[in-house]
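Quick review question:
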């Protein structure tokens, strides 16, 4: 947004975020229009590197997506 405000770009780029099906608290918050992210206590997915039930910057992600 800073680069746009400074006139270096005409529009903001589209943001894309992906979460595994069994570990997707941000996706669930967006789909169900929750005001905040509700952590998943026991996330389960074969994608172990992204098995995060309570993302650290979840609220920032919601703000950016919305």
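Suggested answer, residue by residue:
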């Amino acid at each position: 947004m800073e680069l746009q405000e400074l006139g270096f770009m005409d529009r903001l780029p589209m943001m894309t975020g992906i979460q595994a099906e069994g570990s997707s608290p941000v996706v669930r918050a967006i789909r169900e229009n929750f005001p905040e992210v509700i952590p998943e206590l026991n996330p389960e997915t074969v994608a172990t590197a992204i098995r995060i039930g309570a993302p650290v910057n979840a609220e920032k992600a919601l703000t950016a997506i919305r």
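Why it works: The helical segments are 2-5, 25-31, 58-65. DSSP finds three helices and no strands in the chain.
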